[in-house]
TrEMBL record:
It is an enzyme of class 3 (hydrolase). Keywords: Hydrolase. GO terms for molecular function: hydrolase activity. Its EC number is 3.1.3.-. It comes from Lacticaseibacillus jixianensis. The keyword Ligase does not apply. It holds the Pfam family His_Phos_1. It comes from the Bacteria. The keyword Hydrolase applies. PROSITE patterns: PG_MUTASE. This is Histidine phosphatase family protein.
Amino acid sequence: MKTLYLMRHGETLFNVYHRIQGASDSPLTARGIAQAKAAKAFFEKRGIHFTDAVSSTQERASDTLELISDQPYQRLKGIKEWDFGVFEGESETLNPKHPGEASYGTFFADHGYGGEAMLAVQKRMLATLTAVMQQSKGDTVLAVSHGGAMHAFLLHYLAWPMTEYQIHTGNCAILEMRFDGSEFHFVASFDPLQEN
């Protein structure tokens, strides 16, 4: 059994200004840097060492990973954030309302908005992370990704509402998952700022 630590990047400028941030990018804030350093301390305190590390191709994720570990890592498009099409960079108030639903579904892929559907995000996250875990020669992997992409990934395994599982998905949230060779199993979620 292998362990995946799947985590979100630190706070960015777009997070502060409540801008939709998917395929677009913005830099880590001072708080985001502090969150990444808290995540590093979280892993060090528990004696967790990574045999492999991967990051989204987006700078906010790779910058976060580099604050946690100085080991070599791969940047993978398959774990990048959900593409929100023409909504990129716009106010989060424009996000569609979806009461009682688990995600935005096909909203950003429909109507000529040029974005991705949730199932497309989920499919690439599952395929990429499964391949990473199967190819890893070790047993502990760190993957730095994004909130929307992580949410889509979790929806494959956990029933909505996920609040029943007390899953934290804020900036630098850490999800501990076990991998049995083909499937992932949710273990726990951590907020490194609360855990240290």
